[in-house]
Structure formats: structure tokens, C-alpha cells
Specification:
The complex is a heterodimer of chains A (268) and B (381). By secondary structure, chain A is an alpha+beta fold. Chain A is built from nine helices and six strands, in the order αααβββαααααβββα. Chain A starts with a helix and ends with a helix. The chains are: A alpha+beta (268), B mainly alpha (381). At the A-B interface, helix 2, strand 1, helix 5, helix 8 and helix 9 of A face helix 1, helix 3, helix 7, helix 10 and helix 11 of B.
Chain lengths: 268, 381
């Protein structure tokens, strides 16, 4: 080490001490900023996850929502306040027009088909719960319709390509437009799924489809030891015949190859 | 006389206030020094976070393998009926950086290639290879994949996404990883030249890229964030449940275990829910354990009880309710609460058990040595 660098590195050099102090200040400022960011994130996460309380007023406006969604979106009211206590079921049938002959197919339980990939499987694929979730969402939107709406959805709407518009405007004429819009979104998705089920099982000559969604509660806990106890009667959401619905880019073979195999395994 | 007394009282109060002020100042100063040292001194829970990384990687591998056969039916062109390809429900596929899988959803071959690529990335996460690059890439690809079909997601996806996002700020490859092995080799032959290029070359070979105090701070803050997050999740889950009659009356587990979707083993579910005291015990224990989990972490004995309890809770969910990957993700996060000394002892025990199993006649059963080994590891640390 030469004498010049030795002088430069002397610990008592005022310039060096000052530089060291600045480095320390910058370092502490960075640590403080990082700690503050972490503290805000923890506080926001707490407010978002915990049951809604007056504490949420500590963060004004939509700041919390804008911070948490979408990256930190979550909800932990799982199985609360009461866990699910009923099975959803989706059954599908179709009307097949093959040249001059035509026939109505028997009902097929699509939920049972998919859950055959779940029952007695340690690692069930996510495919096993699609129709259950579809049925659950459909039933939820159906339950928000009025009695007049429910009479309309039991009617058949399948002729010509504008059947969905006609059904929507007919339902809309009985009011509760937001409930109707929500219902139609679910019905459209369910019709598209049921169409694929029909194509997979009965071929492409299917001209219209019909589905029925139901929910049946389990035997109440208090009655479980009663040998004569039966599950309560199912709550049924019956719809009329519908035209086929197919989304752009849909692969019938990708759907059918899995559904047919599961159908065979379900033993229907 | 009275004046002198009042002056005395005044002096006493002033001195007391000054002493109290000094005490607060001292405590605040000590607290700040301790916090600074804790944050910048060293990286905490190196083994715990390594286990979290490995188990989260295994969760990804398991979930992708489980859905491999039905990938096109659930996420690809076979699922276009759900409208996600045209109008995604989640906001993520609309963000460019998360949109890879959404863009490929309707092209079977490309989607399958991306799916296999994601599987390889998940394997690399397990192995801890080039984590500073692989983990962010895996994160962006995974989130895009998991958000493809809104119908089949669960809260485990959210926990998985948020935890991995937080782990981007931590060094999860310091232990039990290929990165750690490379860094150990790099230390023994550090011959890279000086300057920026030399610094980058050393970083590529396993050396430090950023100052240690900075990486230590982000690592330890990530640890704090994950700890708080998991405590909030459990405690709030208990609060939500506590307001429901089935939980209060101790039969809540009966209902989902008799619903097809959450009961892949109906025979087991029937057996478990046959005896009312057991149903009540499991239902109430779930709430009590979740609620008291954060407090139980503060004491070693209760922490062990909490961790075994929560492990059993998640194993039950995995097997009885058919949610193995949700459970594994939660177990992965809980791994940070096990001390490094315990992980090292477990590692040493497993290593010796493995060695013992390879010789014809082991002289001593390896489990007899576990306590002694843990004590030795503890002394070394």
C-alpha cells in the first residue's frame, strides 16, 4: 500500500467520516421505507381478511380495494358461517334430429359423470367439480328470479338464432333487470356446457337441449341415527328446451374425449 | 412548610417524568437497534423458507400432473364453453405479463407445450435452480395458468399466488438448493475480475448481486409479511366460523363430509361422523386451533402443539375433502414456523437413516440418535 492510499484510508479523515455518515443515513432511510411498505401491506391485508369492522374506516375511499385487487385478492370465510350442506346436480337431455327421424334422449347426470373423477381418488383433477360449480351458480341466480320469471324460464326457447334475445326481453318485461341479466349470463354458460355434453354423448345432430339443476340437502345431523331418515326433497330449477350454444374456438373433441371416458366410469 | 412540601412534590413529579421520558427513549432506542440488527444482520428461517419453496414447487408439480390428462377439458379449447377465452372473468389474463396461457388456451399444441414448460419450471423451483430468474418467471406463468378457469379455483390459489409473490423478495435458495451448492463452490474459487462485469459474473456464479444488508432486510420483511398473513388467515377463518350455528353446536364437519364434492371417501366420512363426541371435538378443535394459532406460536411447547395440530387439520382436508394441493400449499407456508435447528436435525436424522439403510447390518437404530443429534446441531449453531 503506498503512502497516498494509506492517507486516503485513514479512519480519522473528516471527508471519510462524513461519507460514512451519509451512507449510514441512506441505508437507514432505505430500511425505514421498506419497513413502512411492509407495515402498510400487513395492515391492508389484515383489514381485507378480517371480518368487516369499523377499523376499515381508517383507510379512506377505495384505497384498500385498489391496493388489494387483483394481486392480493382473497377471502377466508370458507365454510362459514355454515358449511355447505347440499349436493348440486345438473342433468342434461337433448332432442336429436337425424334426417327424417328424431328422438328425445334420456336424462344424463353430468355432475355424476364429473364427480366420478373425484370419488375414491386421492388426487382428483379440477375437471371433477366444473358442473357442480356451474349448477351452484345457476341455482343461486335462478333463486333471485320472481315467480313470474320462473314461469317464463320453464317455456321452450330454441327456434331461430335469436332465442336468447327473445327470452331476455320476455324476462325483462317482468322487471328486476339486474336479476334477469345475472340469470341470463348463467343460463348462457350452462347452455354452452350442456350443448357440449349433448354433442359428446349423442353426436352433432342434436338440435336442442334441456337441463335441470337441483339441490338436495344432506340428512340433517340430528336425524343421522334414524334408520328411516331420508334426505329432504330436492329443490329443482327446471328450464324449458333451449337452442344449442357454442362459443368460438370450442373444441368438441377436447371436451368429448374426457367427458365420454368419465361417463363410462360413472356407470350411467 | 406547605410551600416547601409543594416544591418537593413538584421536583419529584418532574424527576419522575424525566425518568419516564428517559426510559421511553432508552426502550425506543433499544427497540430500533434490535429491529435494525434483526432485519439487516442475517437472513432468518433459511431452512424454513427453503422447505416452503420446495413444498410450493411440489404443489405446482402435483397440481399440474393431476390435471395433465384433463388439461384441455378444464383449461384449454375443450372449455371454451365457459366464455373465459373471449371474456376472462379474472383481471390477470388481461394483464400482458400474466396473459401467456390465456393467449394459448385455444391452441392445443402450444397450450400443452406451455403446460409442460410450467411443469419444468415447478420442478426447478423444487430444486432451487437459478431462483432469482426462475421464481419470477414461474410466478407470472403460474398466475396466468391458475386464473384460466374461474369455476375450478379455490382459496389455495390465492394463498399460493400471494406467498410466491412475497417470496420474490426473500432468498429461498440459501439452503437445500442447487443455487446454494453453486454459491458454496463459487466461494472456494472466486477468481472473477473486478469492475461491474466481474461483479455480475460473480453474481451469476452464486455471489451477491446487491448489498447484504439490503437483501437481508427484504428477506426478513418477507418472512414477517408471510407470518402475519398466515396468522390473519387462520384467526379470521375462526372468527367467521364462530358466528355459525353448526360450528357453535359442534357438528359443522358433518355437513361437507356428506356432500359429494367435498367427500371423495364417503365410507371414511361416515366412519368419522358416526360418533357425536368426535364430531364435536373435531369441529370445535378446528375453530380453537385456528383462533389461537398466532398466540401459540409465541411459546415453544404451544408452537409444537399448534404446528402438529394444523398439520393434522390440513392432512384431514387433503384426504377427507379431496383438496390435497390446497393443503400442501398451506403446509408449505406453515413450514416457516419450524426453527432452522429442527430442520437441520431432521435433515441429519434422515441422512443417517438413509445411510444406515444402505449398509447390511446397522449397528444402531437411527431414531435413538435423534435427540442427541438435535442437541449437537443446536450446540453447533
Amino acid at each position: 500500500m503506498n503512502s497516498n492510499s494509506a492517507r486516503h484510508n485513514r479512519p480519522s479523515s473528516p471527508r471519510r467520516i462524513e461519507a460514512s455518515r451519509w451512507r449510514q443515513r441512506i441505508r437507514r432511510s432505505v430500511i425505514a421505507l421498506l419497513a413502512l411498505a411492509a407495515a402498510w401491506h400487513i395492515f391492508a391485508t389484515f383489514l381485507w381478511i378480517a371480518p368487516v369492522s369499523g377499523l376499515r374506516a381508517a383507510v379512506p375511499g377505495s384505497v384498500l380495494h385498489r391496493y388489494m385487487i387483483p394481486m392480493n385478492g382473497q377471502s377466508w370465510s370458507v365454510f362459514a358461517p355454515a358449511p355447505i350442506n347440499g349436493d348440486y346436480r345438473l342433468q342434461v337431455r337433448a332432442y336429436v334430429q337425424n334426417g327424417t327421424s328424431s328422438y328425445t334422449t334420456p336424462w344424463v347426470d353430468a355432475t355424476e359423470v364429473e364427480t366420478s373423477m373425484l370419488t375414491h381418488h386421492l388426487f382428483p383433477p379440477r375437471a371433477s367439480i366444473q358442473s357442480t360449480e356451474l349448477a351452484s351458480r345457476f341455482k343461486s341466480s335462478y333463486d333471485k328470479l320472481t315467480a313470474d320469471h320462473k314461469v317464463v324460464v320453464k317455456l321452450g326457447y330454441f327456434e331461430s338464432d335469436d332465442w336468447e334475445q327473445r327470452l331476455t326481453s320476455k324476462l325483462g318485461s317482468y322487471g328486476a333487470q339486474s336479476a334477469v341479466d345475472s340469470y341470463m349470463r348463467e343460463e348462457h354458460e350452462l347452455s354452452a356446457y350442456s350443448t357440449q355434453v349433448a354433442y359428446a354423448l349423442w353426436g352433432t345432430k342434436v338440435s336442442r337441449i334441456q337441463f335441470v339443476v337441483s339441490r338436495r340437502n344432506v340428512v340433517p345431523y340430528g336425524d343421522r341415527d334414524d334408520p328411516h331418515a331420508r334426505r329432504p326433497a330436492p329443490q329443482v330449477a327446471l328450464t324449458g328446451w333451449r337452442g344449442t350454444v357454442e362459443e368460438a374456438g370450442q373444441s368438441r373433441s377436447d371436451f368429448a374425449s374426457v367427458f365420454r371416458k368419465a361417463y363410462a366410469e360413472s356407470g350411467q | 412548610m406547605i410551600r416547601a412540601y409543594l416544591v418537593g412534590v413538584g421536583r419529584f413529579v418532574t424527576a419522575l417524568a424525566a425518568a419516564f421520558g428517559n426510559l421511553i427513549e432508552t426502550l425506543a432506542s433499544r427497540g430500533l437497534r434490535y429491529t435494525e440488527t434483526w432485519l439487516t444482520g442475517t437472513k432468518h428461517a433459511k431452512y424454513g423458507l427453503a422447505v416452503t419453496r420446495i413444498l410450493l414447487g411440489l404443489t405446482g408439480v402435483g397440481l399440474l400432473l393431476t390435471n395433465l390428462r384433463t388439461r384441455l377439458y378444464t383449461f384449454g379449447a375443450g372449455s371454451a364453453w365457459n366464455g373465459e377465452a373471449a371474456h376472462p372473468t379474472s383481471e390477470f389474463p388481461r394483464m400482458w405479463i400474466f396473459s401467456l396461457f390465456h393467449r394459448l388456451a385455444l391452441h392445443d399444441t402450444w397450450f400443452t407445450l406451455a403446460y409442460v414448460g410450467l411443469l419444468i419450471l415447478a420442478c426447478l423451483v423444487v430444486l432451487g435452480w437459478r431462483m432469482k430468474i426462475v421464481l419470477p418467471v414461474y410466478f407470472f406463468c403460474w398466475v396466468g395458468f391458475a386464473e384460466m378457469n374461474d369455476l375450478v379455483g379455490d382459496q389455495g390459489d390465492n394463498m399460493y399466488r400471494i406467498t410466491i409473490m412475497t417470496l420474490l423478495f426473500a432468498d429461498t435458495a440459501q439452503r437445500w438448493s442447487l443455487d446454494a451448492r453453486r454459491a458454496a463452490i463459487a466461494v472456494t474459487r472466486d477468481s472473477a475480475p473486478g469492475g461491474v462485469l466481474g461483479h455480475l459474473r460473480r453474481a451469476w456464479l452464486g455471489g451477491r448481486l446487491l448489498p447484504e444488508w439490503l437483501t437481508n432486510t427484504t428477506h426478513n420483511l418477507a418472512l414477517v409479511v408471510i407470518t402475519c398473513h398466515v396468522c390473519f388467515v387462520y384467526a379470521s377463518g375462526a372468527l367467521y366460523k364462530a358466528s355459525g350455528a353448526p360450528w357453535q353446536q359442534g357438528y359443522a364437519i358433518y355437513n361437507p363430509l356428506h356432500v359429494i364434492r367435498f367427500s371423495p371417501w364417503p365410507e371414511l366420512a361416515d366412519l368419522l361422523t358416526q360418533w357425536a363426541p368426535l364430531v364435536a371435538l373435531v369441529s370445535w378443535a378446528s375453530i380453537i386451533l385456528q383462533m389461537s394459532f398466532p398466540m401459540m406460536l409465541t411459546n415453544r411447547v404451544t408452537r409444537v402443539l399448534a404446528l402438529f395440530g394444523i398439520l393434522g387439520f390440513h392432512l384431514g382436508i387433503a384426504v377427507l375433502m379431496g383438496l390435497p394441493w390446497f393443503s400442501l400449499a398451506m403446509i408449505a407456508v406453515d413450514s416457516i414456523f419450524i426453527r432452522d435447528v429442527t430442520w437441520r436435525a431432521v435433515s441429519a436424522f434422515l441422512g443417517e437413516a438413509w445411510q444406515a439403510s444402505r449398509v447390511p447390518l446397522p449397528t444402531k437404530a437411527p431414531h435413538e440418535d435423534f435427540k442427541r443429534r438435535r442437541a449437537v446441531v443446536s450446540r453447533r449453531s
